[in-house]
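Here's my example:
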Amino acid sequence: MRGLRIVLVVCLVLGVLFIAADRLTVYVAEGKVAEKIQARQGLEGSTEVSINGFPFLTQIYGKHLDDVDVTMTGIRADPAAAGTGERLMISEFSVDLSGVELDGDYGGATAETAEGSAVIAYEALSVVAGQKGVSFAYGGEGKVKVTASAEALNAPEPAEVLSTVTTEGGDTIRLEADEVPASGAPGAEDAIRGAVDLDRRVGGLPDGVRLDMVTATGDGIVVDVEGEGIRVAG
């Protein structure tokens, strides 16, 4: 009976040591992956990685991770905006990667599928609007309020419109005014739309990620993203 107790105690201790080693290894691995993603994407912000599933050691030995969560901040989208030279700032990008296959030398990884979201602040849209005097804010009920100064319109009065935001081609955000203020001046509508409507390509995300649904919220524009064959490191 005493021998059985000793065996049980030894097994318990070994189990605790295995769990501790597994958690320590995954902690180190998360940091290494975050560093690689940070370098690959050239981020201005930070990267956090969470490798899910237990045990991690068997996953790393098989070079296959079931599920990995990645959160990045400070992504500058390509290309630079004409007129300002500024690149659109994505304040936060969160993605759930499934079926992550590690390279043979563990130097990189590719995810089978990805689902997540990107958040773009309204101030970031104002920076890349292409001209001064155009600002963006939440307009309520899923709309974006766009304000253009009289100077931006080269008109005696400023204009304010509510716009609908959509995605186009999996890589572009489009803002289009639902309607513009009535004016009897020739070309006034075209001038207002030229100032407040916006098409902005969102490059710079991990290769293979495409834009899906988009929603205007009080915190900014939230874009659902998805993709296959996502290269995340290396």
Summary: Residues 123-201 form one domain.
